[in-house]
Amino acid sequence: MTEIARRAALAGLGTFLAAPALRAQPWQPSRPIRIVVTYPPGGVNDIVARIVAEPLARELGQAVVIENRAGAGGNIGTQAVVQSEADGLSILLGTTALFGVNPIVYARSGVDALRDFTSLGMLGEVANVFSVIPGRVEATNVAAFIEEAKRRPLVYGSVGNGSSSHLSAALFLQMTGIEATHVPYRGSSPLVAAMLAKDVDFGFDTTATSTAHIRSGAFRALAVTTTRRAGALPDVPTMQEAGVAGYDLGIWFNLAVVKRTPEPIVARLREAVGKIGTPETAARLRTAFVEPISVPVAEGDAWIAASAMRWQAIARDMHLSAD
Is domain 33-125+251-317 annotated with CATH 1.10.10.10? Predict the structure, then answer.
């Protein structure tokens, strides 16, 4: 081998050996990241996204902006992320409804978050509150409400077809054998506005958006949808305590990217999401009446799938459909 050939071969070998080290460099976003929230500003989804955006931006060294894309029970925003580049710059604020209800309620839409997304990390959980409107409803507890609903027609609002708000109410009606007319709104803010205007008799919405109005007396809380009482409303019984045996629906939030996202990008984002779970972030979530939850990253997709299957089974059994 000539000296020139030998040097060329050694140079090539050096490049080959250096390649793994170059590839091992963690991914770094080159442009601002967007978190797509599938409901309007002001609701709990928007609140959670804005709480986590700031620490996530610090971890990634890049701006994180919130983009509200409401409509079709969250499918418009979900589809927007599905159709975006798989570059880690578009993140979905995932919810129980998007993963666990919409694939059934919007079966013909072609949108399926459980199929199309992988989780970056869980953020928190919140209860829905069953609230009635004083002046429109006389009942002060669930048993009295059931009797009142059997005597006269009632109207309830939700944050949209297929939402956890909708399913919470529909399951309650099914389990208690009563009927009411459903009016879907485009998110928590419009629903709260309708309840404050006394346009509906009752509604199910999160502790994050209901608690202040319950404390002011504008809403009367009859029960929460989880098996544990909400820390923000310790005097409000659970549905099971109120006599609806077996009722249990909690709402969770996570961050997710499309499954076709390259693994190095997913790994870097998961690392960043894991680091934002600080006591400071947890305190801010609790201030918004959201309880932080922790699920190991390796178990995240399986945890979500198990939860989603339960919600889908309920939606299927109740024949819920927006198509």
Answer: no
